[in-house]
């Protein structure tokens, strides 16, 4: 009897180990402002990586798209966001606005603004400009510190 029980447990473990869930490929499309140069998709499908899923711009449009793989059956909400660069600093202007893929078929979205916009080849951050002024330059307007009278 003990051997039969052990055999049944072993068979059950193999059956569970061989179960695989079907997946499907879905095309994500998003319309973005015209100043957007690049778009990345992030969500459960890529473990919320900010740079793993770059999107491709559809020619002569404001649409970016990419294909992602999602489970065939989505039991809970499947959230994702769009970024205008490969970092969270380029998140949608409203960070609470997740897009939800709940039912099979949702593939479109619109983002009206991002917190920042990424320009490939230029590192994000503050820009420092050094200017050299020739000695012969004269200033017509001089800044004067306001006088404060205490009473």
Q: How would you portray this structure in words?
A:
This protein has 151 residues and is α+β, with helices and mostly antiparallel strands. It is built from 1 helix and 7 strands, in the order H-E-E-E-E-E-E-E. The chain has one helix at 2-17; strands spanning 23-31, 40-43, 56-57, 63-71, 79-83, 99-100, 108-110. The chain has a 4-stranded mixed β-sheet with strand order 3-4-1-7, with no helix packed on it. The chain has a 3-stranded antiparallel β-sheet with strand order 2-5-6, with no helix packed on it. Strand 3 (56-57) and strand 4 (63-71) form a beta hairpin. It is elongated and about 95 Å long.
Q: At the first level of CATH, what is the class? A: Mainly Beta
Net shape:
elongated
CATH architecture: Sandwich
Low-confidence stretches: none
**Distinct helical segment count:** 1
Radius of gyration: 27 Å
Oligomerization state of this entry?
single chain
First-residue to last-residue Cα separation:
101 Å
Order of helices and strands: HEEEEEEE
* Strand percent estimate: 15-25%
The largest beta-sheet arranges its strands as: 3-4-1-7
The number of distinct structural domains comes to: 1
The CATH homologous superfamily is named Immunoglobulins
Biggest sheet details: 4 strands, mixed
């Amino acid at each position: 009897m003990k051997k039969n029980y052990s055999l049944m447990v072993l068979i059950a473990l193999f059956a569970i180990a061989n179960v695989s869930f079907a997946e499907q490929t879905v095309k994500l499309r998003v319309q973005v402002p015209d100043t957007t140069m690049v778009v990345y998709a992030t969500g459960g499908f890529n473990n919320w990586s900010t740079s793993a899923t770059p999107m491709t711009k559809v020619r002569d449009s404001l649409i970016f798209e990419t294909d992602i793989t999602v489970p065939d059956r989505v039991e809970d909400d499947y959230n994702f966001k769009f970024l205008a660069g490969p970092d969270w600093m380029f998140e949608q202007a409203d960070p609470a606005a997740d897009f939800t893929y709940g039912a099979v078929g949702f593939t479109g979205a619109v983002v009206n603004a991002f917190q920042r916009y990424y320009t490939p080849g230029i590192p994000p951050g503050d820009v420092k400009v050094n200017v050299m002024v020739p000695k012969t330059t004269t200033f017509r307007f001089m800044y004067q510190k306001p006088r404060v009278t205490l009473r």
